[in-house]
């Protein structure tokens, strides 16, 4: 039950925050939250997480749709066959799938993903991102950690 609940929570949080931004901001509007460090913005991204391959055109759009669908199918199948009894892997995989679905919804509805979190570190300006991107990154990190822990544990223990 944990797997679908985490997925649904991520999708709901992602879509709710994006809807709030779209209702409260004009496109490309930016508002500082912590001056010189963190802004809220309303931008769209036709690429993948953190603007990877943005502006790649129609082939990029459909490429990312297919990649998201394959990720959802692959991680869900992997979870069902291999990781259902492993809590950390379940959460990791669900975060990745929830994030992929959240961005897929945008891509299918709007042709681009809505991004709104804008971080600046000194003169470095990180590409804007969203809740789904964050969940994908946290999920990938947890997946790696869980995989390393599984290799080091006796077979009867569950992670």
Summarize the structure.
With 159 residues, the protein is α+β, with helices and mostly antiparallel strands.
Task: List the main descriptive attributes of the protein structure presented here.
159 residues
Beta strand %? 15-25%
Distance between the first and last residues' Cα:
16 Å
What overall geometry do the principal axes of the alpha carbons give? Answer: globular
Strand order of the largest sheet: 1-2-3-4
How many DSSP E strands? 4
Order of helices and strands: HEEHHEEH
Low-confidence stretches: none
What is the mean pLDDT?
A: 90
What structural category arises from helix and sheet content? alpha+beta
What is Rg?
Answer: 17 Å
What is the oligomeric state here? single chain
Tally of helical segments: 4
**Helical amount:** 55-70%
Largest sheet: 4 strands, antiparallel
- Total separate domains: 1
């Amino acid at each position: 039950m944990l797997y679908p609940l985490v997925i649904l929570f991520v999708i709901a949080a992602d879509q709710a925050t994006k809807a709030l931004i779209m209702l409260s901001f004009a496109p490309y509007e930016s508002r500082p939250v912590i001056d010189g460090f963190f802004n809220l913005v309303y931008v769209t991204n036709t690429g993948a997480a953190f603007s990877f391959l943005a502006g790649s055109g129609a082939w990029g759009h459909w490429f990312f749709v297919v990649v998201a669908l394959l990720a959802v199918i692959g991680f869900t199948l992997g979870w069902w066959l291999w990781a259902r009894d492993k809590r950390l892997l379940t959460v990791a995989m669900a975060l990745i799938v929830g994030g992929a679905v959240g961005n897929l919804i945008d891509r299918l509805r709007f042709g681009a993903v809505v991004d709104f979190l804008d971080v600046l570190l000194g003169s470095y300006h990180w590409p804007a991102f969203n809740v789904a991107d964050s969940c994908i990154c946290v999920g990938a990190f947890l997946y790696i950690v869980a995989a390393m822990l599984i290799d080091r544990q006796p077979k009867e223990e569950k992670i």
